[in-house]
Amino acid sequence: MSNTESNTVNGQATILDRIVAKKKQEIEADRRRTPIVRLEESDNFFRECYSFRDSILDPALTGIIAEFKRQSPSKGIINNKVSVKEVTNGYASAGASALSVLTDRSFFGGKKADVIEARKRNKIPVLRKEFMLDEYQVVEAKALGADVILLIAAILRPDEIQKLARLAKGLGMSVLLEVHNREELDRSLFPELDAVGVNNRNLADFNVSVQHSYDLVEHIPAEFLKISESGLSDPTTITELRSAGFNGFLIGENFMKQQDPGRAMAEFVKQF
Ligand SMILES: O=C(O)c1ccccc1NCC(=O)[C@H](O)[C@H](O)COP(=O)(O)O
Predict the structure, then answer these.
(1) Rounded Cα distance, 87 and 118, in Å
(2) ipTM for the assembly
(3) pTM (2 decimals)?
(4) Which residues contact 212 (CB under 8 A, 6 or more apart)?
């Protein structure tokens, strides 16, 4: 599927179709409300980004990209009682290599201001976790204070991936490409990318299997950081994924479902 196509499962629009359709409307409204020239005036637009590569490979840190996620289409409300400040500070103190902050409001209960807050409070890279379709969102990510953007192969054509990645790199940000299978991987690799994430969650039907990471790792070229994403809840799995060649691990729900996500992460990392 690309930005312009649509997929169905059993004749029904997938959640990704619905997210993409809504996102296109939101982008147009945002563009009218805040033109790009205004985004380019923000203080964060001029800051130097933290290096995603350096932080993920820093042996003093854990390799974990810890996610602030209030709710999700697959789980509904996960935790809407905690603040970005307390959670991201907790994650950073527990050794997170980066923070992932969802900005989609309709499906994930996120806010753009969450990225601004996470950026202000922490000194590690912040990933703006969004369904990126348009150059406007890339410029906006920089203006919010993001260091990294996510590009999802399932919703972008190869030329769209390269165009958005080039823009992000030109603005000094890093780029994480997300794939779920071999076909997406093989058509989506470009030198502008910094990292390839294997999403263990099938975004059409929500099934989660870490086997996707093991199946794809050997096909990711050496120059890219390798990130395993979603459904990670066992410290032993992290150790095994690291042995298989992964450098980073994106974890959301396993921490966010606890009353104190930062403390949950601190307990988790003691075990690997
Ligand atoms: O999490 C979902 O239900 C979901 C549904 C549709 C599109 C994306 C979705 N999640 C985004 C993510 O990739 C995860 O938030 C991230 O990898 C962390 O996953 P987890 O540790 O399982 O919360």
Answers:
(1) 9
(2) 0.98
(3) 0.96
(4) 180, 181, 198, 199, 200
Report which protein residue has its CA nearest ligand 1's atom 1.
72
Is 266 exposed, middle or buried, given 0-12, 13-18 or 19+ CB atoms closer than 10 A? middle
- Three-class SS of residue 60? coil
CA of 72 to the centre of ligand 1 (A): 7
Per-residue model confidence as pLDDT tens digits over 122-169: 999 999 999 999 999 999 999 999 999 999 999 999 999 999 999 999
CB 170 within 8 A of CB 46: no
Q: Residue 248 and residue 269: Cα distance in Å, rounded? A: 13
Q: Residue 172's closest CA among 16, 49, 40?
A: 49
43 C-alpha vs ligand 1 centroid, how far in Å? 30
Domains, the chain, with CATH or none: 10-269 (3.20.20.70)
> Which residues make Cβ contacts (< 8 Å) with residue 270, sequence separation at least 6?
none
Cα(16) to ligand 1 centroid in Å equals 12
Q: Distance of CA 259 to CAs 6, 42, 46, 118, 150, Å?
A: 38, 34, 36, 19, 27
